[in-house]
From TrEMBL, chain A:
<dbReference type="InterPro" id="IPR052705">
    <property type="entry name" value="Gliding_Motility_GTPase"/>
</dbReference>
<dbReference type="GO" id="GO:0016787">
    <property type="term" value="F:hydrolase activity"/>
</dbReference>
<comment type="similarity">
    <text>Belongs to the GPN-loop GTPase family.</text>
</comment>
<dbReference type="GO" id="GO:0005524">
    <property type="term" value="F:ATP binding"/>
</dbReference>
<keyword id="KW-0067">ATP-binding</keyword>
<protein>
    <submittedName>
        <fullName>ATP-binding protein</fullName>
    </submittedName>
</protein>
<keyword id="KW-0342">GTP-binding</keyword>
<keyword id="KW-0547">Nucleotide-binding</keyword>
<dbReference type="Pfam" id="PF03029">
    <property type="entry name" value="ATP_bind_1"/>
</dbReference>
<dbReference type="InterPro" id="IPR027417">
    <property type="entry name" value="P-loop_NTPase"/>
</dbReference>
<dbReference type="InterPro" id="IPR004130">
    <property type="entry name" value="Gpn"/>
</dbReference>
<keyword id="KW-0378">Hydrolase</keyword>
<dbReference type="GO" id="GO:0005525">
    <property type="term" value="F:GTP binding"/>
</dbReference>
Length: 204, 108
């Protein structure tokens, strides 16, 4: 029973869930995480070997063991027993080896795009598509303006028909919240249909 | 300061228990006959008197996540903390959890 173990005498830890905020460099990920959550800068020191360098290359250069990667990290308390964590994925391509780690256990992802240069988020869309991780596309309007309709954006990004495209303003808390709700609604719809979200394959 | 001096030069944890949202909690009371913890270990123990996830610890300590994981491994092996993995997500059956997330977001 609980009383026999001093480690679990206190109330149990709340459930933790995770959503990734992805997209190219400078599309507004930091802004979005900051708008909707309490934000703290998070550093991670990644051994260079995991970036694909041979261990031998590092011999004799002890100060080059690791490289520092900065992540955006936000916390949203959803109730006494539930906390949602947002992680902004590093936008620079050379840090993409970290995305796999970040994606483990994530409910899904928001891929932010900047309509002035949508190509900077293509790779993020590919990443989640290939791994069958559910995602929605958040279109961050520059100064909150949206020159294109969601349909036009879906066509231009060649997204699967079912992928939600949501117009948003990363500076606006309610707008960012609505994007997260859009993602969760998509997850619920996928769950209700036995896991099918219109995308091929299945999560492992 | 070079962060890995805190870990005695180790750059990898001895075990892989810790994800970014693994929750850790200091054991209370601390094990008897345990040696006095190192300063960074003691800081972690103070911060996780109540459950806290690895990413939050790293942010509060202003230390890289990988360094914090190594220090947490030390504490786990010394019986000073407990670690709780996040609930595994099954996208096809966790309607209850998803609905809670949806309701919580709706209240923001």
């Amino acid at each position: 029973m609980a009383g026999s173990d001093p480690a679990i005498r206190e109330a149990p830890a709340p459930d933790s869930v995770k959503i990734l905020i992805a997209g190219g460099f400078g599309v507004g990920k930091t802004t979005m995480v900051g708008s909707v959550s309490e934000i703290a800068p998070l550093r991670t020191e990644e051994p260079l070997t995991s970036a694909g360098l041979g261990v031998d290359d590092l011999d004799g250069i002890p100060e080059k063991h690791a490289t520092t990667v900065a992540l955006d990290f936000g916390r949203i308390t959803l109730g006494r027993e539930l906390v949602l964590y947002l992680f902004g994925t590093p936008g620079q391509q050379r840090f993409w080896f970290m995305w796999n780690d970040l994606a483990i256990g994530a409910l899904g992802a928001v891929v932010l795009i900047d309509v002035r240069r949508p190509e900077s988020s293509f790779a993020a869309i590919d990443f989640f598509e290939r791994r069958d991780i559910p995602f929605v596309v958040g279109v961050n309007g520059f100064h909150g303006r949206h020159p294109y309709t969601p349909e036009e954006i879906r066509d231009s990004l060649a997204l699967p028909a079912g992928t939600p495209v949501l117009l948003c303003d990363a500076r606006d808390r309610a707008s960012c919240r609505d994007v997260l709700i859009g993602l969760v609604d998509e997850l619920i719809a996928g769950s209700a249909h036995g896991g099918g979200t219109g995308r091929p394959g299945r999560a492992g | 300061m070079r962060p890995f001096t805190l870990t005695g030069g180790r750059t990898r944890p001895s075990r892989a228990d810790f994800t970014l949202i693994t929750s850790v909690t200091a054991v209370d009371p601390q094990p008897e006959r345990a040696a006095r913890p190192q300063p960074e270990h003691a800081r972690i123990l103070r911060l996780c008197a109540k459950p806290v996830v690895v990413a939050e610890l790293a942010a509060q300590l202003d230390l890289p996540v990988s360094v914090v994981c190594i220090l947490l491994c030390d504490l786990l092996e010394a019986g000073r903390i407990t670690a709780r993995a996040p609930r595994p997500i099954s996208r096809t059956s966790d309607m209850d959890l998803l609905q809670k997330v949806r309701d919580g977001l709706g209240r923001l």
